[in-house]
Amino acid sequence: MDTFEDLMNRNFKGELSGFSNLTKVCPATLLNAFTADMRKRGSDFYANGTQYKLFCPQYTGVANLVNSLWNIKQLVFVEKVTTLEEIRNCLLVNWGDELVEPFVPTTLPENMKNRLKNRCEMLRQLVWNQPKFGLNKNVTDFGLKITQKLSKITRRIFE
């Protein structure tokens, strides 16, 4: 299994370094409509359609990002209470509150559904009880490292 740092590096590089490819999945239709350069050039805002580059990362969810990454680091890589796959599966079924297709087969016996629900609820409580960014020195220091990494990657995009 990868280390937490390997996981972070691989995902941070993949998410932010692909910013210039947004046109393929999420064109800026509203910005395109109201920006003269795009109308003249017939290009998208994110595909070098403007004369000047504008990049406004919205870091409004940083506290949630830090708390989530802290939870993964602690519960999966340090304490080894669960796996990434199990956490993902619990999130897909809303911590056991929505045990429905396509994530849980309708043919799954009721006792298995109950075990899954109980396990997800137990993991949810573990996550809920983890220390939080801004309220705990270790998590806050961890969060500062995350934001520094985000900042470096963001600056590299336009170098």
Describe the protein's architecture and organization.
The relative contact order is 0.13. The protein contains 8 helices and no strands. The chain starts with a helix and ends with a helix. It is 60% helix and 0% strand. The chain folds into 2 domains: 56 residues, no CATH class; 99 residues, no CATH class. The model has no long low-confidence stretch (mean pLDDT 85). Helix 6 packs across helix 7. By secondary structure, the protein is an all-alpha fold.
In short:
With 159 residues, this protein is mainly α. The protein has eight helices and no strands. The protein has helices at residues 4-17, 22-25, 29-34, 36-41, 62-78, 84-92, 110-128, 137-157.
Topology:
Elements: H1 4-17, H2 22-25, H3 29-34, H4 36-41, H5 62-78, H6 84-92, H7 110-128, H8 137-157
SSE arrangement, N to C:
HHHHHHHH
Task: Give the count of helical stretches.
Answer: 8
- CA-to-CA gap between the ends? 33 Å
Shape: extended
Tell me roughly what share of residues is in helical segments: 55-70%
Low-confidence stretches: none
The profile of the biggest β sheet is: none
